[in-house]
Amino acid sequence: MTYPLIVLPFVALTVVVTLSTLTRPRFRERMASSGLTALVLVGLTLVFDNIMIAVDLFSYPQEHLSGLKLGLAPIEDFAYPLCAAFLLPALYTLLTPRPLKDTV
Fold first, then answer.
1. pTM for the structure as a whole
2. Which positions, given as ranges, span the membrane (predicted)?
3. CA 61 from chain center: how many Å?
4. Measured between alpha carbons, how far is 39 from 2 in angstroms, rounded to an integer?
5. What is the distance, to the nearest Å, from the Cα of residue 75 to the centroid of all Cα atoms in its chain?
């Protein structure tokens, strides 16, 4: 089970960084947008990974997988689009300077 262990730090980082934006404005809107983006990316991953595996463009050593699959695609493949959908907007939010408040 090598691949699930490789994915774990990315998922943990995504959760920590995303939750660190909880106090930033428009958190709910960002989560809704990230969720919609995740659905699209997972759908695309589902279609194209299954096609590429079916035509034998690549394969995975079974001993390194968790054994869970969606079609032919190992479940581990879906962590990366999920992380991208949530981590990138969270990083952008954290790296965008907050507006200065008036000090009158």
1. 0.83
2. 6-23, 35-58, 78-95
3. 23
4. 25
5. 12
Q: What is the helix (H) or strand (E) element at residue 15, kind and residue range?
A: helix 2-19
Between strands 69-70 and 73-74, the pairing is antiparallel
Residue pair 86/23 in contact (Cβ under 8 Å)? The answer is no
Per residue in 43-83, pLDDT (tens digit) is 999 999 999 999 999 888 888 888 889 999 998 999 999 99
Tokens of 15: 């959760």
Cβ-based neighbours of 101, under 8 Å, separated by 6 or more: none
- DSSP annotation of 67 reads S
Joined together, the tokens standing for residue 14 give 């995504």
Residue 87 tokens, joined: 């981590």
**Distance between CA 100 and CA 56 in Å, rounded?**
55
**Residues 87, 88, 90, 96: what is their CA dihedral angle, to the nearest 10 degrees?**
160
Instruction: Give the C-alpha separation, 55 to 45, whole Å.
Output: 15
